[in-house]
Design brief:
The complex is a heterodimer of chains A (about 450) and B (about 240). Chain A is about 55% helix and about 15% strand. By secondary structure, chain A is α+β, with helices and mostly antiparallel strands. In chain A, helix 5 packs parallel to helix 6, helix 8 crosses helix 9 (about 335-355) and helix 9 (about 335-355) packs antiparallel against helix 11 (about 410-420). The radius of gyration of chain A is 48 Å and the shape is rod-shaped. Chain B starts with 5 loop residues before the first strand and ends with a strand. Mean pLDDT of chain B is about 80; it is low at about 190-200. In chain B, helix 6 (about 165-175) crosses helix 7 and helix 6 crosses helix 8. In chain B, the strands form three sheets. Chain B has a five-stranded parallel sheet, with helices on both faces. The chains are: A alpha+beta (about 450), B alpha/beta (about 240). The interface of A and B includes residues 302, 303 and 331 of A.
Chain lengths: ~450, ~240
């Protein structure tokens, strides 16, 4: 049931207003119809009933001998009166109780208490007049017998209900239509706003949503646009600052590196060079991590299996124990340089901490999995969660000795998340760490 | 002092310019310093320079523009000093054909070795192999893009290459339809003087074939020449 209810603003508004309006209009229709019917009764049958009552009063008040001529005299201009011992209307005919009630009232107001009143509609004899029908009234006047009358009355408008119904429906459609129009005018800009907020990655120029719809919405959209512009300019400023820091720190580092070459003691010189290199690497990692969310690199379709294979090959060229499992082609739209770095960091980690790297690429459902296994000791459970936090270093045994900036996994995770994927860390069944870079696969 | 190669060092940072000039001077090179592009142009006009060491990021006219000027007006080799590794691959590969580059902070010894390697190559009149002369090379169904160092297939999907594979393929596409011996290939693909490239050419060829051949067992593009070496059996179009 819940699934059938619309969730969107426009759907809910349309449903609610549609139902409420329907109920209100139906009630209104019923009331109006009954009113109009009463009115029509008073206008069409009223004169006939009054005439009948006045004739009945005359008859009841006259001497018995004068009754017949009186009745005969009254029978003119579309009316026919008769005094008879029986009613002309059968007791079980399709009687008109409303008319009977009115006749009774009218008789009572003329001082006549009729013991039985019957009324029924009949078609005129010969069926000539379309707009005329016959009202048969019959009342038991006690001693005088039954006064039977056939009175011509205007036929009520047969299309009354239909005309009223059409008018009601027309009104219903107009109001509902106007409501829907308003709802659509509100829903469209809201949808635009949602889409823009969804797409906003801080990478590109600020996304401008065209302000439209009612004034309040317009203002909300303009405020959103202004916020976007402020955000983008803040992020731009961050980029410029990081770039400046990177450049400004690199120059003194380079200077230091050159001067270090003048140190006489060879061992000391090597150590200084290593420290400077480490600082430079850390600087680069910080810059990459800080910019990873806003890399301007374009996404292109890339064979991720070949990419992982090329990275493994680079490590093998350096003499590291890295191996690529036979992996079929897996194409995805990615930022190749960032993904390269993400994969390189995983392999680098595996070799540093686990002594070796076994890399494979495969597709699992809607995901492309780049898996890097090592033969090391793996990680304790709580470390698995924290390992990808920036600047996180493992226990003492895995700390500075092995070098590295503590940013490798953080960069990989940032790259994965920037692509809508994830970094997963798990321990192997028997040994080693399994680090998986998960990227969304294109639809098959 | 005749015989000493004359190096022009252009860098806006005095902290680098001075100690680097001192280091290179101590190692048998004659160094003239310039703080910006304008000064460098004056030096180039007045002296016979053998090699230009050029910082990319400089205020005023930047290093790229100066490198383009040097390339266009003379055969003087250029080595770039850069701050950002990722961007440089592209810059070097695509626009300039600089002979080599180092990323700051660099080891002065490595820089010295590269300077000597570049000087040796230019002295022999050999084209610097590190510098591709086009943005991309098309052969068969493939396009080798030098900026990104990757192969792009007809379906637009990029196939990343390792440095070794890239260098080897670059050697093939710059010498199409020529039989290249293993030694020649080794020479050609060791563009960067110190790049480790110890594994055999055969190994790299078979890796390349796996990536580019429909049937690696019956190669259509990289053919083995009996007793000779390998050849790229395709028309290569420079893009």
């Amino acid at each position: 049931m819940r699934r059938l209810l619309p969730r969107s603003l426009i759907g809910q508004m349309a449903l609610l207003i549609g139902i409420a309006l329907l109920v209100a209009q139906l009630a209104n229709f019923a009331l109006t119809l009954s009113d109009r019917q009463k009115l029509s009764l008073a206008r069409n049958e009223g004169p006939a009933i009054t005439r009948y009552a006045s004739v009945a009063a005359d008859v009841a008040g006259a001497q018995p001998d004068f009754r017949r001529p009186l009745v005969a005299d009254a029978s003119r201009r579309g009316a026919q009166f008769r005094l008879e011992p029986q009613s002309a209307v059968a007791a079980d005919a399709a009687r008109a109780p409303e008319v009977e009630g009115r006749v009774r009232d009218s008789l009572a107001s003329n001082g006549i208490a009729a013991s039985d009143v019957r009324a029924v509609y009949a078609e005129p004899r010969g069926g000539r007049a379309r707009d005329i029908r016959i009202l048969q009234i019959s009342a038991n006047l006690g001693g005088a017998g039954w006064l039977n009358a056939r009175l011509a009355t205007p036929r009520p408008d047969p299309w009354l209900a239909v005309r009223l119904g059409v008018a009601t429906l027309f009104l219903y459609l107009i109001v509902l239509g106007a409501t829907l129009l308003l709802a659509i005018r509100m829903a469209r800009p809201l949808r635009d706003l949602t889409e823009a907020a969804d797409r906003f990655g801080g990478r590109e120029a600020p996304l401008e949503v065209a302000p439209r719809g009612p004034g309040d919405l317009r203002r909300a959209i303009e405020a959103f646009n202004a916020m976007n512009r402020r955000l983008v300019s803040l992020l731009d400023e961050k980029d410029r600052m990081l770039g400046a820091i990177g450049h400004d720190l690199r120059t003194p580092l380079a200077s230091l590196r050159i001067r270090a070459e003048a140190v006489e003691d060879e061992e000391e010189r090597a150590r200084m060079a290593a420290t400077i290199d480490e600082m430079a690497a850390m600087l680069e990692d910080i810059l990459i991590l800080a910019r990873s969310g806003r890399s301007r690199e374009e996404r292109r379709p890339v064979d991720l299996a070949a990419l992982a294979d090329a990275m493994v090959e680079e490590f093998r060229d350096l003499g590291a124990d890295a191996e690529m499992a036979e992996s079929p082609r897996q194409v995805a739209e990615v930022q190749p340089n960032l993904v390269r770095r993400a994969v390189r960091n995983l392999i680098d980690n595996a070799i540093k901490y686990g002594g070796s790297a076994r890399v494979s690429v495969r597709r699992e459902g809607e995901e492309i999995i780049v898996e890097v296994r090592d033969h090391g000791p793996g990680l304790p459970q709580d470390e698995l969660v924290r390992a990808a936090e920036p600047f996180h270093r493992g226990e003492a045994s895995r700390s500075r000795e092995t070098g590295g900036t503590g940013l490798g996994l953080a960069i990989t995770r940032a790259v994965a998340e920037g692509h809508g994927g994830a970094l997963r860390l798990a321990n192997g069944e028997r040994e080693g760490l399994i680090a998986t870079l998960v990227l969304p696969a294109p639809p098959r | 002092m005749p015989g000493e190669p004359h190096i022009l060092l252009v860098d806006d940072a005095r902290d680098i310019r001075d100690p680097l000039a001192a280091y290179l001077g101590k190692n048998g090179l004659r160094v003239t310093r310039a703080a910006d592009a304008a000064e460098a142009r004056q030096v180039l006009a007045a002296h016979a320079i053998d090699l230009v060491l050029l910082d990319i990021m400089m205020p005023g006219e930047d290093g790229l523009s100066l490198a383009g000027f040097v390339r266009a007006t003379s055969g003087i080799p250029v080595i770039l000093l850069t701050a950002k590794a990722e961007e440089t691959d592209r810059i070097v590969g695509l626009e300039l054909g600089a002979d080599d580059y180092v990323t700051k902070p660099f080891s002065p010894r490595e820089l010295l070795a590269r300077i000597k390697a570049v000087l040796r190559r230019t002295g022999e009149g050999a084209r610097p192999v590190h510098a591709p002369d086009a943005e991309a090379y098309a052969f068969g169904p493939w396009v080798l893009r030098t900026g990104e160092r990757e192969l792009v297939g007809e379906d637009g999907v990029a196939v990343p290459l390792s440095t070794g594979e890239y260098n080897l393929l670059l050697a093939f596409v710059t010498h199409p339809r020529r039989v290249l011996t293993r030694d020649q290939l080794l020479d050609l693909s060791q563009g960067r003087a110190l790049a480790a490239f110890e594994r055999s050419i055969d190994n790299h060829v078979s890796r390349l074939r796996r990536k580019i051949e429909a049937d690696p067992a019956d190669p259509r593009w990289i053919k083995t020449v009996w007793g000779g070496g390998y050849t790229l059996a395709a028309e290569v179009k420079r893009l």
